[in-house]
Amino acid sequence: MGCSWFSRRGGGPSEVDDGGIASIQNVKIYKYKEIRQATDDFNPHNKIGEGGFGSVYKGHLKDGKIAAIKVLSAESRQGVKEFLTEINVISEIQHENLVKLYGCCVEGNHRILIYNYLENNSLDKTLLAGGYTRSGIQFDWRTRAKICIGVAKGLAFLHEEVRPHIIHRDIKASNILLDRDLSPKISDFGLARLMPPNMTHVSTRVAGTIGYLAPEYAVRGQLTRKADIYSFGVLLMEIVSARSNKNTRLPTEYQYLLERAWELYERNELVDLVDAGLNGVFDAEEACRYLKIGLLCTQDSPKLRPTMSTVVKLLTGEKDIDTRKITRPGLISDFMDLKVRGPVVETKPDDEVNRNNYTNPSSYNASSSSGTRDNSNVYSSGASSAAAVSSFSSTI
Predict the structure, then answer these.
(1) Which of 140, 201, 216, 309 qualifies as a FRET site for 227, CA 20 to 30 Å off?
(2) How many domains, in total, are found in the chain?
(3) Is 146 annotated as contributing to ligand binding?
């Protein structure tokens, strides 16, 4: 894809040049005037999200499409980098479980991304914020199963079908958006990394969201697709239980979702973790299978975690989970150790992989995230990327 925009490291307007924009394929370039008109001059009533890197507005485009318009703040150096990453990663990929990128706008200091608008917000603003009683959405068991399978298929596509493979790095509830039919769309690719051929891992600054970070990535900065699989496992258990991975309002022994799931698994009582809001109307065997898959994905050893294509087959029942040995989740060992360990030295600068060296079929959305990320923006104008594991100590 002709998208070599990196004129220099750092930030600022000169990092995005018009020549680079002109060479982008498969992405429509919008005029700033069009964006102003679409949002009624960025009317506050049209704002649907706000975070550390800017704001997101609902807009009506000239062609009649309703769009989510992500406006990055001009002074944000991190925002420039994530803007470039987002375009670079998603402009050529398309999948039914990925948000669709309509285009972008770069004029002067303005950096804007235009996506398809999704009517039903994100999982953290709906299911995890009280489900039906607060969002008005009925998350019955069939809907939850559809969401889990859809996210798994989207990740399997990124991990195994796209070349080079894409590691999302920030799979979590706030980055799963829901359309009118409650079909899930993965968003926020600002932290995404490419996995070049013949490489076992990418060494990079640790970034992501506390509670979803795989221990081996948090401790050593070694990124593989198994880090996404760990995050998905946490998300899977959140969807089944309708509770966040950490809830300090609960008694201490119940606060950490993975710990609680493991305790119940050992006692053969996983069904107790299923959301009580379902009022008993669910397939208990299937729900417990989903929770076991979540535990399978969050095992301490990355080698023991299944691939995402295998996860899809386990979720749909094409493969049997009961034949697989499940070991203790990573949170209980490595993550607890982070309380007493000092900061981990970064392995390398957060180098970008030049996408021009590869070919890639397909299109989608995203932005950034971190251990301290502002989740107020469901279309991910996001928050600052936290690097050092030392920042986890005061949070976990």
Answers:
(1) 140
(2) 2
(3) no
Digit-coded pLDDT (tens) for 267-292: 999 999 999 999 999 999 999 999 99
Of 90, 116, 142, which residue sits at a domain end? 116
Q: Which domain holds residue 219?
A: 123-393
pTM for the predicted model, two decimal places:
0.79
Helix (H, G, I), strand (E, B) or coil at 110: strand
Which backbone phi and psi does 143 adopt, to 5 degrees?
A: -65, -45
Please report, as a single letter, which amino acid is at residue 129.
A
Query: Does the annotation count 170 as an active-site position?
Result: yes
C-alpha pair distances (Å), 28 with each of 22, 101, 116, 225, 363: 10, 9, 13, 30, 12
Residue 5 CA: distances (Å) to CA of 11, 74, 85, 263, 384: 12, 17, 10, 49, 22
Measuring CA to CA, which residue among 373, 383, 367 is closest to residue 68? 367
From 17, 41, 170, 188, the catalytic residue: 170
Closest CA to 305 of 369, 234, 256, 257: 234
Judge if 129 and 104 occupy the same domain: no
Q: How far apart are CA 202 and CA 240, in angstroms?
A: 32
Q: Crossing angle, helix 225-241 and helix 308-316, to 10 degrees?
A: 30
Task: Convert the pLDDT of each residue in 98-126 to its tens digit.
Answer: 999 999 998 888 889 999 999 998 999 89
